[in-house]
Amino acid sequence: MSSNENLLYSLIRSKTILNLNSKLLFGLINILVNGLIIRYVNLNIIGIANIRLKLYYTTILFISRESLRYNIPYLNNIGSIYHYINLIWLIISLQLLIILFFFFLTLFIKTNNKQYLGKFYNQPSFIYILSAFIELLSEPFYLLSRITGNDHIHIYIEFIASTIGIVIQTYLVINNVESSLLYYGFGYLIKSIIITLTYYIYFLIKRKEERYRLFLISSFNHLFIKAISPFVDHKLFNETIQFFKQGISMKILKEGQIYLITIFYLISYEEQAIIHISYLLEDFFPSVIFSTIQQISFNYFHKIFSTRKIDRTMIKTNKYIKDDQILLREKEYNRQISTPNEERTIKLNALTLYNNLIRLILIISLLILTFVIPYSSSIINIYIGSKLSINSKYVLYIRLYLIKIILNGINGISQSFLESIMLIKQLNNYRNILLYKSFIYLLLSYIFIRLFGIIGIIIIDCLYIFGRIIINNYLINKYFIRNSLNKSYLFSLHYIFLLLISLIILNISKYLIDNIFGEISFAFSFIIIITFLTLIQEKQLIHYIYCIIKLNY
Fold this sequence. Notes:
- It is a single chain.
- The chain has about 550 residues and is an all-alpha fold.
- The chain has 2 domains: about 15-280, no CATH class; about 285-490, no CATH class.
- Helices cover about 80% and strands about 0% of the residues.
- The chain has 22 helices and 2 strands.
- Strands 1-2 form a two-stranded antiparallel sheet.
- The longest helix has about 45 residues, at about 340-385.
- The two termini are about 20 Å apart.
């Protein structure tokens, strides 16, 4: 087995798979309990709680912690740890002002259709905001565990807290339907309390040596702000601000439309509930699978294009060493010792993996589309109810949303590859350009939503992501100096014919089988057969799947 294969396998069996399993399990639980809520609670309430009010929660967390999470330094002495902890609390303290701002904002920016709110709006707004603040109190432990490579602790804690929170939330909402908007926020409040308390209790019960191994600190006193000079490392502070600016573009691309919908009331609350339901499906499958494949590919490409030797003199002379700086030195060093043959081998290995990952995502996508296109109405009928399943607009939205997830999966792989081959300066320029593009995307989103309603959200998303895929593939082709990537998108004629025949058979089966569950059972059985025939043809993909199963089960 080659060193490149060893690297890939070690990444596959790492915390990424643990994270995947926890997300899949929680996604399934989330879908099931929300399916119960949908049968009891008005869709307008569901839209307000899970789109408008939840936006306060996610925005506060993003502003307060994402730049810190992206900017994880290398800490080599206790002085640098104190500076870093000071920086963490400084950033979080500044967010208190933002939290107060958001709270007062909720008092003045009301919603339309107040009959759905009754007297409950300000209280749940406060609960969502309080939940975000309590969760931020655990952030120092999470960041320090990331530095020591023990962030698997957070995976377990978050899964347990999220599961308990969503179950209690469901119970409270179902048993208090008239005031359900008030009780929606309790799920997040319980989750945040459990996360924070668990971190502090976990730290308390550990011995000092174990605390230091896990968190680089051995006492609660080390978590307090220290009156040292300088108060924070200015270089790290500036880098954190830069990452915050870069994160703005990603936030706009991910939730920019939700801000538009919330501020300008572009679509109804019922339609916002449909968006929430599509998020539930995305969080479970196939987006979780695609994001995991993307994470594995990023880690692999990130390491394969850097030398395996690190210039340790940097660590000795700096308190804070950024991963990007280390990689920059590594790449410069690598260019000095790599022979043309070694460089060619590295590129070919990366290209082989890239092509296989793209093909894997495409095959999963084609199989899902073959099933979902004929049975969209039946799936909505089972999960939401017959009233919405006959609404052709919602059925079309779910179908287009699935296409968006597929495009996101392909774009994620190409994005991972590009970010791994770019130099730091190129990467910063690329992200700055992305920020400008995100504002253009936001403007186009407003226009499309005004013109086409909820369908306009998906149309502009698909067009934007498809454009990024084209640009990314152009840059990657340019890197390899030849057009060697197109084979990932090509399938044999007999396989395409097989999928078309399957699509026709599944469409016909809808009219021959009266029972909805009978339709779904037949479709699943048929898809299993098609999947088996697909695996026979795609032997190289079987090899990758076999490796994942062998190393993790």
